[in-house]
Amino acid sequence: MFEPTTVYTPAPSRYDDMVYNRCGNSGLKLPALSLGFWHNFGDLTPYEHMKQLVFTAFDHGITHFDLANNYGPEPGQAEKNCGRLLRQYFRGHRDELIISTKAGYEMWQGPYGDGGSRKYLLSSLDQSLERLGLDYVDIFYHHRPDPETPLEETMSALAQAVSSGKALYVGLSNYDGPTMEKATAMLQELRVPFIINQNKFNIFDRRPADNGLLDAAERLGKGVITFSPLQQGLLTNRYLNGVPDDSRIKADGRFLHENALTPERLAQIRALNDLAADRGQTLAEMSVAWLLHHPAVTTVLVGASKPQQIVDNIGALKNLEFSDDELRRIDEIALGK
Length: 337
Fold this sequence. Notes:
alpha/beta; globular
């Protein structure tokens, strides 16, 4: 039985205002904002709502959709829903899109459904392509380092993903600087187009700066895509006056719990919100702009529960400049420096 389809005509002006940044020293450009399918594309979200999120993103020039094998709930469901969206509405726009997916976390039972082995990565990629309904993904990531698998084995699996035509580029996620540098040398020897690192990075969470990832990426000519730019909603004005009933804490508390809103954290959020207002921005806009001002950052991965949140995040592109005093104040508030 054929699925019903509705013609979707993207906005003709979709490329007018989006900024596209070159990914490291590769030939690929990515939009300054990318759409993440980590939340709101699994079983908990109505399909019609997902459709509006994706339409809003593409209508505003967001051409990169980021997934992973285990995104759901249930694991694999985000890829299935993305595949359905692509099949129904984006058949004629595949070459305008960058579709990425990952493997590295537990996906199926048994010894071969997790980690960084050649067996797991290549099997997972085949499964992802089937769920997405695609012949290839644009970027295939190893989702996290696996200390139990030789790095050479993991990198050779990424090489085969490219040589088989099932991925155009490869990336690494949640790697630190020294490990990424070792991986870079291996992938370069294998002549694999490794172009991007995906790491959690925001005003409150500075691990990629502390572990050498940002410096190494800039030095080696690799792009960086950051996730959780708003620290699961803390770097917005959502929680300044309590916890709304439709907030992530209330609706889906898997990754953000109410105990994260300590008096100290709320004081930081209010101080950052005041600084953003001084800049003529919302706290969310300033948080995204702060990431994009870093020379190593290619694109910021945003999630959204409402289409308007995507539009609001795009507002960050209007002011990406920071004075030295503003950067110092952000560090003082967030880090106590």
